[in-house]
Amino acid sequence: MAYKYYKDNRAFIEACVKTGDAVVINEEVDWDLEMGAIVRRTCEKKGPAVLFKNIKDYPGFECVGAPIATYRRLAIAFGLDPDTPIPEISKEYLRRTTGKSYPPKVITNAPCQEVILQGDDANILNLPAPMVHDGDGGRYIGTWQFVVAKDLDTPFINWGMYRQMAFDEKTMAGPVLPFSDMGKMWHNKYQPKNIPMPFAVVVNPDPLSAIASCAPAQIAEDEFTSQLMGEPVEIVKCVTCDLYVPAHAEIIIEGVLVPNVTIDEAPFGEYTGYRTSPREPRTAYYVKAITMRKQPIMAMSNMGVPTDEGQLLRSFSLGLEMDKMLRDQGIPITGVHMLPESTHHLTVVGVKPAYPNIATQIGQLVFGSKLGPWFHMVVVVDEKTNIYDKDELIHALCTKCHPVNGIRVEPFGVGTPLNPFATPAERRLGVAGKVIFDCTFPLDWEASDIPIKVSFDNVYPKDIQEKVLAKWKTYGFKE
Amino acid sequence: MAEWDTYINVNFKDMPEEIEQVTVIRDLTPGKYKYRSTYAKIIVSKDPEKYPEKVWVRLGRGQLIPTPCSMKILEFVNIIPKGL
Ligand SMILES: Cc1cc2nc3c(=O)[nH]c(=O)nc-3n(C[C@H](O)[C@H](O)[C@H](O)COP(=O)(O)O)c2cc1C
């Protein structure tokens, strides 16, 4: 049965406007930094998304900024009440992604192909790609988009959100990291054989397809999207190749990745809140066609200091995919939460400490998984600590984690070139140190040695707690 | 005189001058084509008057050098193979 969801990002933004979670700007705005500055500020204030109706130099186009940079908008994307608490949104994600999966449904006459441009008309400088931050290496056409590609020798299809810079009329460039799904296809298969790899970039997709494309899904993202929707996602065949794209997206850019040619890309404001990776030769995308809706809507995610989509959505799905993996392994966890403010570098795992060194085992499992390159801090707390409460987390970290015995350092892990803390050599190699913070009391301590947590719900008898709670307002307190 | 910018991955004091080099330059002419990039064979000088084109220099992470340089564009270079 289909869940409540939005078939396209237009309907989603309309819903956000109704709840006060998006604002519409009718005044003309400049694609050159002004739009970026507006979106950056709203991200830093955890404010609403923005729909720009009137873009300088680009009549006929609109642009949406910061589509899902808050948990409220994430809840709306799932068809939930915007006030839904994080644990409930997480439950919904887990429920849907462990439910029935469906192959996608192919349709014809798709909205994303209302306009078809080929040859010289397929000119990406005719799209209102924003100059997101001053100093960026170019205008970024791909910040809220994903790349569709097919493996060379298996039926595997990948949808992955990998950024793209507009280079000239026909070329884009972007990092395709070697451990990403498309990176494995491209760097290990197509490129060594000198075969151009067809791609389709889906700009401004519906919210659930976008969430799937930046989640570390264990199955192909078109099926994963269908799981999130509770029915098959509608796709349409590209005009220049055999790839299929979500039919209700706003703009599609089709072409080929160019083997053994690189183009200088970046710097770019990244999800860590810094411009870390320098200008470097990166993967080249050659454009053959652009298809789009009439009156198409561009999209921008503005990465920088928290909170943007890169931090919020990646924290959300990385944490929950870790949750599934740890439960599959039979670890008695109570939950996993990644803090967006940590730029998805810190993950909190709640566990019933069933045997000694369970925290180390958890850390090693998650660092050793496919998800491992994206974070380097795991904090393990006991089952009584609320993993969603930052105050409880800091308290546990500062009181239960032994500064020598409780911290396990693994100097040699897989990292990304984007880690601001990494040495220049580590960034070049894509390696990173990892650290586990064990915030559970050791199991071999005598009961009489274990400190007692002095909190309202731990050091008062139940009947006193209930009495105080029942009379709280009559004592004169407001909340 | 058009205005351009370019990125260097070394410190400004070590920027190669007075030699032919192939690099990316960006056109800063306002409008839809602002920031259009192209590979080009150029010669750069820190003397802003020496060559006909004005070029601003940015370091690898986007830091702008506050005074412009000048350059001569010898030729534009297409690095994408034909017939894709
Ligand atoms: C806004 C945004 C931009 C991203 N840009 C990149 C990128 O340029 N390169 C990259 O490898 N991953 C990038 N990511 C992370 C990938 O989307 C993420 O790893 C995703 O799970 C793709 O995974 P896969 O390669 O395992 O399919 C980005 C994520 C977001 C939310």
Describe this structure as you would to a colleague.
- The complex is a heterodimer of chains A (479) and B (84).
- Chain A contains 12 helices and 21 strands.
- Chain A is α+β, with helices and mostly antiparallel strands and 479 residues long.
- Chain A has 2 domains: 292 residues, Pnp Oxidase, Chain A (Roll); 121 residues, UbiD C-terminal domain-like (3-Layer(aba) Sandwich).
- In chain A, the strands form 4 sheets. In chain A, strands 5, 6, 7, 8, 9, 10, 11, 14 and 15 form a 9-stranded antiparallel sheet that branches. A 5-stranded mixed sheet of chain A has the order 17-18-19-21-20, sandwiched between helices.
- In chain A, strand 12 and strand 13 form a beta hairpin.
- With 84 residues, chain B is mostly beta strands.
- Chain B has one domain.
- At the A-B interface, strand 14 and strand 15 of A face strand 2 of B.
- The complex binds flavin mononucleotide.
The multimeric state of the shown protein is heterodimer
* Helix run count of chain B: 0
Helix and strand composition category of chain B:
mainly beta
**What's the tally of helices of chain A?**
12
| Portion in helices of chain B | under 10%
Average pLDDT of chain A: 97
β-strand number of chain A: 21
How many strands, which pairing sense, and closed or not: the largest β-sheet of chain A? 9 strands, antiparallel
Report the uncertain regions of chain B: none
- The SS-based structural class of chain A is alpha+beta
Helical residue percent band of chain A: 25-40%
- Sheet with the most strands, sense and barrel status of chain B: 5 strands, mixed, barrel
Overall number of strands of chain B: 5
Q: Mind sketching the topology for me?
A:
The complex is a heterodimer of chains A (479) and B (84).
Chain A: H1 9-18, E1 22-25, H2 34-44, E2 49-52, E3 62-65, H3 71-77, H4 86-97, E4 105-106, E5 115-118, E6 139-142, E7 145-150, E8 157-160, E9 164-166, E10 171-174, H5 181-190, E11 197-203, H6 207-213, H7 221-229, E12 234-237, E13 244-246, E14 251-265, E15 280-292, E16 297-300, H8 309-328, E17 333-338, E18 346-351, H9 358-368, E19 377-382, H10 390-400, E20 407-414, H11 424-429, E21 431-439, H12 462-475
Parallel strand pairs in A: 1-2, 3-16, 4-12, 18-19, 19-21
Antiparallel strand pairs in A: 2-3, 5-15, 6-9, 7-8, 7-11, 9-10, 10-15, 11-14, 12-13, 14-15, 17-18, 20-21
Helix pairs in contact in A: 6-7
Chain B: E1 3-8, E2 21-27, E3 37-45, E4 53-59, E5 69-77
Parallel strand pairs in B: 1-4
Antiparallel strand pairs in B: 1-2, 2-3, 3-5, 4-5
Bound molecules: flavin mononucleotide (FMN).
Residues 143, 158, 160-163, 174-175, 177, 180-182, 214-216, 301, 309-310, 313-314 of chain A line the site of flavin mononucleotide (FMN).
